[in-house]
Amino acid sequence: CSYDFARAMFDETLEPIDYDASAICLRTYGLPSATPEKLYTEHLFKRLRPEELYVESVYELTGLAMRENYFSSPRHCLINIDEAYHMTSKPVGREMLDITAHDSRKHGVSMVLASHLGKTDYALEALKLIGILLVGRTEENGALDNLEWGGMHPEDNQHFLSNITEHFTVGDFYVRFFDQIGHVKMFEATSARMRAASNTTFTAEMV
Fold this sequence. Notes:
Elements: H1 7-10, H2 36-40, H3 42-45, H4 50-70, E1 77-81, H5 85-88, H6 91-103, E2 109-113, H7 118-121, E3 132-136, H8 140-149, H9 159-167, E4 172-177, E5 180-185, H10 192-198
Parallel strand pairs: 1-2
Antiparallel strand pairs: 3-4, 4-5
């Protein structure tokens, strides 16, 4: 493997990923991600840096492999995609999410997506199949769009807007469970180690 950052995918001396492991975490911290414009524009795509190609490849190929493995697993499996706009704005990511959104339930697989701007980042028809939507604390610029995207009817529930911009704290969410809307509070883990991990901004030194 010519690039150290790509060893996880191409170095045959490393053990392959165990897709039956309790959890699989992909880390590309510090590597640049190609913009949608670069992927959709031929001359820009041909000039992608190796790091950009790797980031796109590792998420998409591993995601597809996870889907194939999880769809045949006897266990209930969860695919969790944070900063999901990296997937929803790009061609292969959109294809993967489209297939997963349509077929995951009948195979006992759950999919969780997280992003900052629901209306913009989830403009994918297949994602309308997701029946549980949550909106948490949001900056004022995207707050109304998030409530509208989440089907929270902010025109009839005007206090929702001030709550998510001013009053909500960590763990507060409005949730739409199909046609029902409620307010939930998610508590932090009782484990001090897990709390420290969830409250820490990731750095390159962290393992």
